[in-house]
Amino acid sequence: MNIIWLTPEVPYPPIGGRNGVYNRIVQLSKNNQIFLISIAYNKEEKIFTEEMEKYCKKVYFYDRSKNKIGTLVKSVFLPYSVASRYRKDICTQIKEIINSENIDAVIVDFPNMAKNIIELAKSSRGIVYTINEHNVEYVRMRGMAKVSNISLIKRIAYYLESLRLEIYERNLYKSGIFSGISFFSEEDKVFFEKNIDISDAKLVTIPLGANDYGVRPLKLNNKTLLFVGRLDHIAIPNIEAIVWFVHKIWPIILESVPEAKLVIAGANPDDDIMNMSSESISIIPNFSDMKEIYDMADCVILPLLSGGGVKGKLLEAVAFRKHIVTTNHGIEGTEFEGNKHVSLANDEESFAKSCIDILLRSKEFEKREVNAYELFKEKYDWKAIGIDYQSFLRSLVGRDK
User: Fold this and answer.
1) 11, 123, 245, 374: which has the fewest Cβ within 10 Å?
2) Would you say the C-alpha torsion 67, 73, 74, 80 has a positive or negative sign?
3) pLDDT averaged over the chain?
4) Which residues lie below 8 Å from residue 84, measured CB to CB, with a gap of 6+?
């Protein structure tokens, strides 16, 4: 198949939400030609054109709209997250590709990119349009309005934006332009079936995955905890999580394990995160070697207090055969269970205790790591997921043609 693929951010490096997009592209590139159109947040991200050209026939990176006045005008009619990613030159580029190539399908990641294809979808014939729902976006944004470590003004702004986004999403799906909608979690799929008018779109759950790196369990016993995740202003749940952990939980851990170390690694950390660096805390920004990062610790923490959807960083940690201490939010949308696959804790004292236990008595928890890896191999390996996603797309193309 020939596929146009739209993403609201450059899929590389595959950290956080980019993980699911990047690896689906990698898997589908084996049997299809992909024309990738992405929004780049800064000029540095555009250096990854060559990386994506390994898997795509053509790669087009566009800046997020820098015309603030124009974006604000568009925001009168559209949610800001949609208006800032809606560009007429992207619409023109898509039309040119359709006119010059025998396009079978257009894939949109996230509804905030969909405005770029709405008019074309209404007029073009013989092309399947499908969308990947990473979360229920307006619900996720409404949850961000409850995050305690951002200002009241921002929380109000997120709530109001969630209302506008809900109207936009409901109208988008009611329009009937999408032949299929894929979800990372069954919970999101069920929510759509019960609450959203989806016309006659085919719905399917194709989970987020991770690559099996084939690594052998590496036991360092170096009293180090690791957090991996995007760390800029967009990743509010990650920022909330690491701030909570460093300020509320880390001091408790150091009282019992004074030699303990914490490594925080991720993309684009802001100054507040960089300033957390201390004798016991190391910050590693914008790393390039994922295995090198995960080799630094036996235990990965996911102290998430908010945020919906399946967490790619959970699956990555399982794939690297690390023990995981997390909250209910960390395993949301997956089949991983507390005390069977991961250590589960939802308050400061219990989270600290779980970390202390694994730092001091790691061998007692090795069975959980084995159980988690076995479930990962069964349900969340990218190769199997790629096959399912390919079958889903082919069924849509066959149905519509």
Assistant:
1) 123
2) positive
3) 89
4) 64, 65, 71
